[in-house]
Amino acid sequence: MQLRDFEVLQKTTTLNESIYYALKKSDDFRFTDKIVRSGISLSSNIIESIDNDTKSNNKVLLSHAKGSCNELKNYIKFGTSKGIIDKKIGKQWLTETDQIVSMLNTLIKSQYNGPDHILSTIK
């Protein structure tokens, strides 16, 4: 992957830090643990894709990251609806997760080119 791909990782890391510090004093430890873990999973999959050498594996890892991001969005929506997350902060986080999903979609689409992709072998 290329240097521009680190932008999505930086955005994800910043979001994870925001979530962690905003929920650090929450009494709902089970929820806090779940939402923080989904954010870390998102970052971990992106890091693995950056360290990976093949486009096909990158696509799989980025797809896993997208799934983790959608899981994170679900937790944000739930936490906001139950009053665990402030509505203004929840709205901001949802905007950020939408941006991350868009960035991941762009990266996933970029993995369709080249000799590692199955479509390149079909004539």
Set down the secondary structure blueprint.
Elements: H1 6-23, H2 29-51, H3 55-81, H4 87-110
Helix pairs in contact: 1-2, 1-4, 2-3, 3-4
Describe the structure.
The chain is built from four helices and no strands. The protein is mainly alpha-helical. Mean pLDDT is 86; it is low at 116-123.
Describe the structure concisely:
The chain is mainly α and 123 residues long. The protein contains four helices and no strands.
The total strand number stands at 0
The coarse overall form would be: elongated
- The helix tally amounts to 4
Overall pLDDT? 86
What is the CATH class name? Mainly Alpha
Q: Could you estimate the helical fraction of the residues in percent?
A: over 70%
Contiguous uncertain segments of 5+ residues = 116-123
Radius of gyration of CA atoms, rounded to a whole number: 16 Å
For the record, the count of structural domains works out to: 1
Query: What's the helix-strand series?
Result: HHHH
What's the story with the biggest beta sheet?
A: none
| Quaternary state of the chains | single chain
Q: How much of the polypeptide forms β-strand, as a percent range? A: under 5%
CATH architecture: Up-down Bundle
User: Span between N and C termini?
Assistant: 27 Å
Structural class: mainly alpha
Kindly identify the CATH topology. de novo design (two linked rop proteins)
